[in-house]
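A.,

Following up on our hallway conversation. Structure tokens first:
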């Protein structure tokens, strides 16, 4: 949970509440040896860059040994580094390089499932003594899965294993069998591994799909239709609080680290049960409410309408609904989400303005902001011309199923939706420069580089007078200076959409965040005479809030 920083304003200051986290997807960040795959040495080359940006914590996506069915989220060995990423010695160098610059390192913790190539699964599939119940096995007719549960990646959540002659559960890919947390030996092994990483000096964990750990005995059929069937049984399952509390007590309760739980289908009330004083020792959560906003009637492979008031409603619910001691993880992007400017902004005419408006909102809310690699330069979605260009298992698999079932006749029919939604948009290589392959690699990149790298890249953003990068830099500084931005209470102001305005108050200090979430000029409808402008994405703004906000204009004032 972490130590408290000296209390200066009558609040309990906590480092991870004040931190800005930067997420690295190592495969796509920087390749150091020309094999087309990003690696740990590549990250080390960029530590100085991270320091210049001013972030406090790095969340590193999985670098553990893995056959990469799901790019490292299928772990074969928790205690060694994937060959493509480097070695344990490289990892130690990275940790030291980050710590030298006062940047903390948070590792990804994937313990809902392992790879089917993990030693535990190999033993379990052979029914080896002591390992029989490490996973969820059900015997029965090889043509009839034990129940109707579905995988998050599409298709049934069960596969039949010929060796064991039984079905095993996988809520994700068939190469990601779910661990059986009902088995105390599994839990003990996991805790030992977690503690081992903590002893290695890391500063916390991002916990992958952590509210899926508990599955009910008997594996009852799902009754509720939807994505995916069975979720009322395995999301926040019957023993989830017990498991998380035990994990906490056995491991990170003893360290000054931060934890953030990725939680699917999470509402505010349930979040409060996990977090804060009466929670399970978890510091903050990622919820998904604002990422479902643009799903169509047919779900995620359908594009739906959204409005600014939908966002206001969701953010306000979370900002006001979390208990005093609960804490939120704020994000627009991560390795599973498309690029936010292409999604909720305008990646053509107003790329700068809309990216910075969205950033102002992210940093204006109460919680810890997470910035995903490339977000700080306003990277956009790419065009995946063919299914061959798509790498993500969670894009390929659903499309293969649609093709098989005749829902679509060709990839071209779904290409627009892929170009809108696929996880691969986050995974195109980081755009460092206008050089070959965006300066990501000297070799052939494992996934296509976005064509716009000659225009959108770190080098040009940093050398420009005005750029998304500099704006992020400013917001990061601002958040460091302004405790009200971290701890202040949130109050929504009643102004007509598409203007979104709210205040943040801490004691006598009051900040105003005001955004025009549209490509048209809008009246702010606020009659605030004098305030001090702290940040804004247009130049030449007065200290008073003029009536008209320009397209995607965003400002933060001290009132
Ligand atoms: C989480 C990860 C995602 C992964 C899945 C299975 O949602 O963020 O990338 O595919 O869990 O581990
Ligand atoms: Ca490499």
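Then the amino acids I'd put at each of the 559 positions:
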């Amino acid at each position: 949970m972490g130590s408290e920083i000296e209390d200066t304003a009558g609040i309990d200051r906590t480092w991870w509440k004040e931190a800005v986290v930067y997420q690295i997807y190592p495969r796509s960040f920087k390749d150091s040896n020309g094999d087309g795959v990003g690696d740990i040495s590549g990250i080390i080359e960029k530590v100085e860059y991270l320091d210049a940006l001013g972030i406090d914590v790095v969340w590193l996506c999985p670098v553990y040994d893995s056959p990469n069915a799901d790019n490292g989220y299928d772990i074969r060995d928790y205690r060694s580094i994937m060959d493509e990423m480097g070695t344990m010695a490289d990892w130690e160098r990275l940790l030291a390089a980050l710590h030298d610059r006062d940047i903390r390192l948070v590792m990804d913790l994937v313990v809902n499932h392992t790879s089917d190539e993990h030693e535990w699964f190999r033993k379990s599939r052979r029914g080896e003594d002591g390992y029989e119940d490490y996973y969820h096995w059900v015997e029965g007719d090889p043509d009839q899965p034990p129940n109707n549960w579905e995988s998050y990646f599409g298709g049934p959540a069960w596969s039949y294993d010929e060796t064991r002659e039984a079905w095993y559960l996988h809520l994700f890919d068939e190469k990601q069998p779910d661990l059986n947390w009902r088995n105390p030996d599994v839990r003990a092994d996991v805790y030992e591994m977690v503690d081992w990483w903590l002893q290695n000096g890391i500063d916390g964990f991002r916990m992958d799909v952590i509210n899926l750990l508990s599955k009910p005995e008997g594996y009852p059929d799902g009754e509720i239709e939807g994505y995916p069937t069975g979720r009322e049984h395995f999301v926040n399952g019957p023993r989830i609080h017990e498991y998380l509390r035990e994990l906490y007590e056995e491991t990170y309760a003893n360290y000054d680290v931060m934890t953030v739980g990725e939680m699917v289908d999470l509402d505010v009330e349930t979040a409060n049960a996990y977090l804060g004083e009466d929670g399970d020792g978890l510091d903050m959560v990622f919820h998904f409410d604002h990422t479902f906003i643009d799903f169509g009637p047919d779900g995620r492979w359908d594009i739906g309408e959204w409005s600014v008031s939908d966002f206001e409603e969701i953010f306000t619910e979370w900002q006001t609904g979390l208990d005093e001691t609960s804490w939120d993880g704020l994000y627009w992007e991560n390795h599973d989400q498309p690029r936010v400017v292409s999604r909720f902004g305008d990646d053509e005419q107003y790329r700068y303005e809309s990216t910075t408006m969205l950033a102002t909102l992210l940093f204006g809310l109460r919680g810890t902001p997470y910035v995903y690699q490339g977000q700080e330069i306003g990277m956009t979605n790419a065009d995946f011309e063919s299914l061959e260009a798509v790498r993500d298992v969670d894009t390929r698999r659903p499309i293969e199923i649609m093709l098989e079932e005749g829902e679509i006749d060709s990839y071209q029919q779904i290409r627009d939706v892929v170009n809108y939604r696929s996880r691969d948009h986050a995974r195109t290589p980081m755009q460092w420069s206008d050089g070959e392959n965006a300066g990501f690699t000297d070799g052939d990149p494992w996934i296509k580089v976005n064509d716009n790298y000659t225009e959108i890249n770190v080098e040009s953003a940093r050398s420009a007078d005005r750029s998304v990068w500099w704006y992020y830099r400013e917001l990061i500084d601002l958040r460091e200076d302004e405790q009200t931005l971290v701890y202040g209470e949130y109050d929504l102001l009643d102004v007509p959409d598409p203007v979104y305005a709210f205040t943040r108050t801490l004691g006598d200090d009051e900040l105003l965040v005001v955004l025009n979430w549209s490509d048209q000029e809008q009246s702010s409808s606020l009659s605030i005479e004098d305030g001090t402008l702290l940040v804004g994405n247009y130049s030449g703004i007065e200290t008073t809030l003029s009536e008209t906000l320009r397209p995607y204009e965003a400002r933060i004032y001290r009132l």
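The pocket of alpha-D-glucopyranose (ligand 1) is lined by residues 70, 73, 110, 172, 208-209, 262, 335-336 (CB under 6 Å). Curious whether your intuition agrees with the design.

B.
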